[in-house]
Amino acid sequence: MKNEKAVVVFSGGQDSTTCLFWALEQFSEVLAVTFDYGQRHSQEIDHAKRIAETLGVTLQVLDMGLINQLSANALTRDSIEVEEQKDGPPSTFVPGRNLLFLSFAAIYADAFGARHLVTGVSETDFSGYPDCRDTFIRSLNVTLNLSMDKQFVIHTPLMWLDKAGVWELSDELGAFEFVQTETLTCYHGIPAAGCGTCPSCVLRNQGLQTYLAKKEGAKS
Amino acid sequence: MKNEKAVVVFSGGQDSTTCLFWALEQFSEVLAVTFDYGQRHSQEIDHAKRIAETLGVTLQVLDMGLINQLSANALTRDSIEVEEQKDGPPSTFVPGRNLLFLSFAAIYADAFGARHLVTGVSETDFSGYPDCRDTFIRSLNVTLNLSMDKQFVIHTPLMWLDKAGVWELSDELGAFEFVQTETLTCYHGIPAAGCGTCPSCVLRNQGLQTYLAKKEGAKS
């Protein structure tokens, strides 16, 4: 796919940054899109911009404030606590979020002459989000193609990886240190290792420890 | 479906107004959503509001300005001529428009506790728009359900009707005169019978004449 263009759905977090490195290896031209929907931490977008600039990738910020008009949720309302719920997805869930992100990314890709879309969704760590599952992505791929009479291909390099696997992939791509120091995953807006206690930090750090132990084991 | 709620994608034109009447007959509670994406004629939204108010239906206007960020087209840019193109869809085409409209409508419906979505797309008069075809709608229905783990049902009462058939349906629903005098379909923003020369007016008026001739023939 060396001579083709791709659009990466990008947030500046561990997963989408790893996907950006993956796409830069796979495609001749890569664009990134990120969505501004009143995130709790506007530094998420600043982080995305900084990473894209460092990697020489054009980043398009798309205004998705409409999401807030439609659903209240913890990612965009400071007053709602970030917490794990017993049933269903965590309270950070924006229903249909990946549906919208990928639909807009496809329209953007089409205008740009790209047919490849890259997203960091993962079924393994999907935390109950239905729009991170492989079956949804495949259905959406068909729907996007029918909606515009095109041949989009949605790539999900992390679909079957757990967090340790994502760290391993970033290492294979020569991006391990970059991802460790430059990305922002923490629900409380603290970059790199983060707050260490929110669900996102716990997942990230457990994955890192698991991968480091595996790497150490392979050496000895 | 008398005890269920529905959300109608509504523009104030002939097709979606007929669908609104249809939905009011089918469901116990009906909401309408319309999209503000910098239409050439802002009176399109005023018309939609007026019709909804007359029919006692709550109308939610959703800001979709982002569409303009993504694609240039004749519906939203005054400088581009409205014309039929020899190949492909007319220059009024916004790629993926129905994909976005129905996705947002579904998220809105979900927040409102509705699972029924109604849209006036028609394969018969689809003018080359891929996102008016039945196969797209069915694929999208599955994708929406997978994206949110829901059981949405997309209703397309006009799918297999030509414009004469849409007039006939509005007559059956007791809405014939209302649709004739209150709706706005014309590309040049002239309500009711419109400018008479743009492709949309020609289609609307030819359909009306065909239906009136059929009705007259049935009488004699």
Automatic annotation (TrEMBL), chains A, B:
It comes from the Bacteria. It catalyses: 7-carboxy-7-carbaguanine + NH4(+) + 2 ATP = 7-cyano-7-carbaguanine + 2 AMP + 2 diphosphate + 2 H(+). One of its GO terms (biological process) is tRNA queuosine(34) biosynthetic process. GO terms for molecular function: ATP binding; ligase activity, forming carbon-nitrogen bonds; zinc ion binding. Its EC number is 6.3.4.20. Keywords: ATP-binding, Ligase, Metal-binding, Nucleotide-binding, Queuosine biosynthesis, Zinc. Zn(2+) binds at residues 186, 195, 198, 201. Pathway: Purine metabolism; 7-cyano-7-deazaguanine biosynthesis. ATP binds at residues 10-20. InterPro entries: QueC, Rossmann-like_a/b/a_fold. Gene3D superfamilies: HUPs. Binds 1 zinc ion per subunit. CDD domains: QueC-like. It is an enzyme of class 6 (ligase). Its cofactor is Zn(2+). NCBIfam families: 7-cyano-7-deazaguanine synthase QueC. Catalyzes the ATP-dependent conversion of 7-carboxy-7-deazaguanine (CDG) to 7-cyano-7-deazaguanine (preQ(0)). Homodimer. Belongs to the QueC family. This is 7-cyano-7-deazaguanine synthase. It comes from Planococcus rifietoensis.
